[in-house]
Design brief:
Length: 181
């Protein structure tokens, strides 16, 4: 079958249609990040460790809705038996599940970490004034993760000094922004 020259010219003059490729999302999904903002005010954070959380179905659904309170929580690392556990963190009940399938809101939850990391945390907590606190719950590839901080408490004067430094920094930034205008 022969193609007429008019048709051939028509096809050659069409611009190639550009179809944009799917862009990878730089931001995370709509899953929440729950932070313990009070912890950074009350403690000096020396080091952090990311751990997995072992949760039940209704707990993970509540966490995805952001129904978690980390403020009163703490982490305990023991060597005999070797374990890492989260205490006093309130995960609200998942209302659509019904009363038969609910979890205990303030139960002890198991954290998942490597043996050497758990031993290291247990050694660090033997020191006077050192504690493990939950800093943040977030999701990576659909799995709930907990950021645990190795911390020691601040005195009242330390807190006041931190507030004064923060206010001084804000004042400097305000002055610099006014100068740019």
């Amino acid at each position: 079958m022969l193609v007429t020259p008019v048709r051939a010219i028509y096809f050659h003059t069409l611009r190639p249609q550009t179809i944009p490729m799917a862009q990878k999302s730089t931001s995370r999904t709509m899953e929440p990040t729950i932070e313990n903002r009070r912890a950074r005010h009350d403690y000096f954070i020396e080091d952090t460790l990311e751990c997995g959380l072992k949760l039940t179905g209704t707990e993970i659904k509540s966490v995805r809705q952001g129904q978690v309170s980390l403020g009163e929580g703490y982490v305990r690392a023991t060597e005999h038996p070797l374990s890492l556990s989260l205490h006093s963190v309130h995960i609200a009940e998942y209302a659509p599940a019904g009363p038969a399938h609910q979890h205990d809101p303030v139960r002890e939850r198991i954290l998942l970490a490597q043996k050497r990391e758990i031993r290291k945390l247990a050694d660090r907590t033997r020191q006077r004034g050192v504690t493990l606190i939950p800093l943040k719950i977030y999701f990576i590839r659909g799995r709930a993760k907990l950021l645990v901080g190795i911390a020691h408490g601040k005195q009242k004067s330390d807190k006041r000094q931190a507030i004064a430094q923060r206010e001084h920094k804000r004042d400097m930034e305000r002055a610099m922004s006014r100068r740019r205008e």
